[in-house]
Design goal:
This protein has 211 residues and is mainly β. It is 12% helix and 32% strand. It has one domain. The protein has a six-stranded antiparallel beta sheet. It has a four-stranded antiparallel beta sheet with strand order 2-11-4-9, with helices on one face. The protein is globular.
Length: 211
Amino acid sequence: MTEGQMTIPGQVIEDTVVPACEPWSAEVRKGDVVRLVDIEGQQAVDFLCYDLADRAERYNAANTIKLNNNIYLGQGTVLWSVRARPMMTIIADTCGSHDTLYGCCSIEIDRVRFEKENSWGCQQNFEKELAKHGMGEKDIAANVNFFMYVPVREDGQIAIADGLSKPGDYVDLMAERDVLVIISNCPERDNAAAGYEPTPVRAIVYTPADC
């Protein structure tokens, strides 16, 4: 199924094409769903979420790994908070193996990794978008990387490999509570996170038809 032919199983609240390298956010009510669509394939989407009423309760990578017994996210995975409460559940996923380890790119980390002075990164996107909600750098936690593949070797070595997502692949996340969702459509050009050429993604918020 191509991106243009996609059927949304419910009432669409918002449908936005997020340009390459840009952030996006939405307040999502309990029971509603966020669908993230990788329009052209191999495009990482850095993702954070927060309890809408208490922003200190936010996605926690370590709890999510421990309580799912897996470093990769896929259909059926629950995203857990720092207080070990469910934030969102992946109810549909056409790709799988989404990353919990690598965090986000930034000007500073690219300076160390690539000895380059890049002008922007997901860290900066998160800060820019969080500012719209009265939040900032201190509110950024280790994030999910949807559509980014980070294999782990037997000796513990990790690296960003070519993405597994194909054009039109998507992931659906149902809110287990009212949440604020923040994404960065990854601008990285020096590794495979965005296929070396960042592309747009689509963000859809909908109420499921059976609600």
